[in-house]
Amino acid sequence: MRAALVGLIFVAAVSAACGPSHGPGAGDDVNEGLVSIDVNPPNQTLTYAGTPATVAYTATGHFSDGSTRVIDPGDVAFSLDADGETLGTITNGTFTALGTAAGKGGVEATVGTIVGSTSVMVVVHTTQFGSGVDPAAGSNFGADPIATGGAGEQTIDYPLDGAVMPSSVKAPHVMWEGPSAAADLVRVRWTAGAATLDTILAVADPATFTADLQPSDADWQTLLASAQGEPISVEVDHWDATNGPTGGTAVSVKIVTADVVGAIYYWDLSQGRMQRIDENGRALAIPNPPTSINGSAEAGDQCVACHSIS
What we know:
Layout: H1 2-17, E1 34-40, E2 44-48, E3 53-56, E4 58-63, E5 68-70, E6 77-80, H2 82-87, E7 88-91, E8 94-97, E9 103-111, E10 114-129, E11 155-158, E12 163-166, E13 174-177, E14 184-192, E15 195-203, E16 212-213, H3 217-227, E17 232-240, E18 244-246, E19 251-256, E20 264-268, E21 273-278, E22 281-284
Parallel strand pairs: 2-10, 10-15, 12-19
Antiparallel strand pairs: 1-4, 3-8, 4-5, 6-9, 7-8, 9-10, 11-13, 13-16, 14-15, 14-17, 17-18, 17-19, 20-21, 21-22
């Protein structure tokens, strides 16, 4: 009886030791002879238009005996390279583009020491609608590019074309001017790499319409991440029922990550003085303004600012 029991325990132990195993780096018997891995589907392009876009990947193994088969998902570790991590996430082989950046990244599949890879391209194109704008209004602007030079062309006053901005500052306001009438539409379009962010506004009353728009912090971060060192451009397009769409001339800003050395001077309307911002904070640029240079000013009149700074 004791001998039989010992034999039973021994058989059970051997069976447990020889049982199947799965997971990355495991299943050596199943994947023995693995030479290379194809990640499928290869070289995908996803478009994020406001909701997450996904693609499911599989790993196809090529073996030393010439055979090819899809590897058990439990034996594969899927991951993203550094560029891919800026575009989205991957879980159990499913990549999800989150709209946080546009561009190209790498998807990798690893089994033991064998690694296969492919690329994934994420295009971001979102459209936001201002108050009173029908979501179908985007189609009024037609196909890109829109011809410029029409009667309704809008001109951007700020930012200045070719301006250089530190990446650490908030997004610039876009300020523009141009003809408009009630029921017209204006589209502010930011473009950075493969990212396009549109905002469509309705002109309810030209007398009170504010031709000024600043991207949200989240949108600005998407543009910064998508630019990849290249300039970010903005244009303001116009639509009216009589003339249709009219394109605006784009301006671009260059984003830099280096420290900006020096000071910024600006006119403070509330103080009636020139202010300076530098590494020490904000302070009056001219604490004690001198009297008028020509001496002809009225008593107490003082020079407080220059019309331009170069």
